[in-house]
Each structure stands twice: as structure tokens, then as C-alpha cells.
Amino acid sequence: MRILSIFLSGAFVALLSPSFASACSCAEKLPLEEALKDATLVFVGRVEDQKESAFKKDQMEVKFTVFKRFKGFEEVPNNEYVLIHTPKDSAGCGYNFTNGFEYLVFATGTPAHFRTNLCSRTEVLENAQLDQHRLLRLTGQPEEPESEPSPLD
């Protein structure tokens, strides 16, 4: 009985420690159809800039140039650019975006505060080609034709 008591006390202390309390934990990512349904905004875009949010110091504000819209741009005032917020660090499930890279982004929220995180289906575009092609079909958009090789090649 004493061993069980010591074990339970240790487990309780471990759960309260900062390393356990601040770690990001995600369930498996949602299937594409469900992720599309749950997201407010879905698009392909390139990261232009990122900075600490002026309103939430634990958040990053990431500016994207939007190339392909899949969902949610009806209420977005400027369709060319969109701001997405994410926690600053991965311990808080923040997505670590890289300037100049293109992403398939799944965001929730409102135009004033769209957000994404590691637990969403957001992914570097290079690793999300299959999802992008499936989204084209799911949203009824035409597939973009493969570029034809030049006759000089």
C-alpha cells in the first residue's frame, strides 16, 4: 500500500511539472474531408513575414500571400494576403513556419484572428501535394494542368 501511495504521489507531481504541463499533445490528424469541414479557412500560400502578435505575446502573426483558395474567403477583406496566428513555440502546439516556403493551411477562427497549430492538417506544400489534389476534387475546382515540356527541351 505504501508503494502505491508513493507511486501515485510521484505521478501527481510529474503531471504538475512544467515539462508535462507545457508539452503539445495532438491526437491523430483529422481525415481530409473532416479537416476541410472543421476549418474556417483553407488555402495554399507562401509565408511573407512573421512577427510576435501585438495582442497576444505568446502568439506569432504570420502573413501569407494566397495562391489557391479552397474555403472561407467570402469574409476576408483582402484576398491576396491573410494573417494567421499560431502559438510561438511547439510546446504550445505552435506551427514553425519558414519565410518563403509554401504551405497548405487549415485555419479556424474569424478574419480578425485566424489561427492554426501543429494539430491541424497544415503542412509544407511539398509534403501536401496529395491533399491539395484531393481538395481540388472535394471543392469542385479544376485540376491545374501539368506544364508541357518546351519543344526546345
Assigned CATH class of the domain at 40-138: Mainly Beta
Strand content: 25-35%
Structural class call reads alpha+beta
Largest sheet: 5 strands, mixed, barrel
Mass-distribution shape: globular
**Rg from Cα:** 20 Å
- Spatial strand sequence of the major β-sheet: 1-2-3-5-4
CATH topology term of the domain at 40-138: OB fold (Dihydrolipoamide Acetyltransferase, E2P)
Number of helices: 4
The oligomeric state is single chain
- Uncertain segments are 4-21, 147-153
The helix fraction, in percent, is: 10-25%
Tally the beta strands. Answer: 6
Mean pLDDT: 83
CATH structural architecture of the domain at 40-138: Beta Barrel
Helices and strands, in order, run as HHHEEEEEEH
Roughly how many Å apart are the termini? 78 Å
Keywords:
single chain; 153 residues; alpha+beta; OB fold (Dihydrolipoamide Acetyltransferase, E2P); five-stranded mixed beta barrel; 24% helix; 30% strand; disordered C terminus
